[in-house]
Amino acid sequence: RLWQKGRWRPLYAGTQTKYETQLQSNSGDLQTQAQNVLSVYSQHTTQNSGRGIYMKALFFGSIGVLAETSELQRQAFNSALEQAGLDLRWNIATYCHHLRVVGGRQRLAQTLGLGVDDPLIDQIHRHKQDVFEALVAARQITPRRGITDVIARARADGMNLAFVTTTTSQQLALISNALSDSVDLNSFDLVTSKADVTAEKPDSEVYHVALERLGLAANEVIAIEDTEMNQAAAVGAGIDCCLFAGEYATVTHGDRQIHDAVHALGNT
Questions:
Q1: Which residues contact 159 (CB under 8 A, 6 or more apart)?
Q2: DSSP characters for 22-35?
Q3: Global pTM?
Q4: Rounded CA gap, 63 and 44, in Å?
Q5: Are 193 and 166 in contact (CB under 8 A)?
Q6: 3-state SS assignment for residue 143
């Protein structure tokens, strides 16, 4: 089981060397995926139980872990590109590809062949953020399936909760307000933002910051991330990390048969 004798156990080992390179779909039967999660978990539980390791914290790594916003982001980018007079639109397949790059400015810079600090990048990104805020305000954003259950279970067991992100404070406030009825980020023990680091993900700095501020060792924490690039940031800090891939995330490692891994966590 994923929840056993008052202990939380990580779903994956702490290195990516165990992952086979194989393209996996983000769809599939949730019951089958949950069974695969249990299989991976049971193997790791056996390893950790002998070492007597108890999990003390659960790190949610990205906005995409808490809520599915990729389509709204894509629409906002397209509006901003059009407003800038560019004959460029990102369809779903193209946007899935761009999500391999962490950060909206970085995606724009790579696509347009400009520097991240170029004035045009700043103009497009600011307009994109305005449109995204309007879309979030117009539509009800809800937590991804299983997230509230996992938060409740972790809290009941006295675990620390952290939202370990390198997004901007503006974006953080937007999502926090949109999810406030079901996920209270103010109750988390730690919430980070871009202001807390010098290097954004996939650099591991923010995870090291979180461990230091909470006084925890990497093997006392489980992280949940929504893309492989973000997952690499947790793994790089020595933290076991479950990949809870978003709808538009591209997934390549063979152990990933768990599109709704957090659903399994919340219902075992």
A1: 8, 55, 56, 57, 58
A2: EEE-S-S-HHHHHH
A3: 0.77
A4: 27
A5: yes
A6: strand
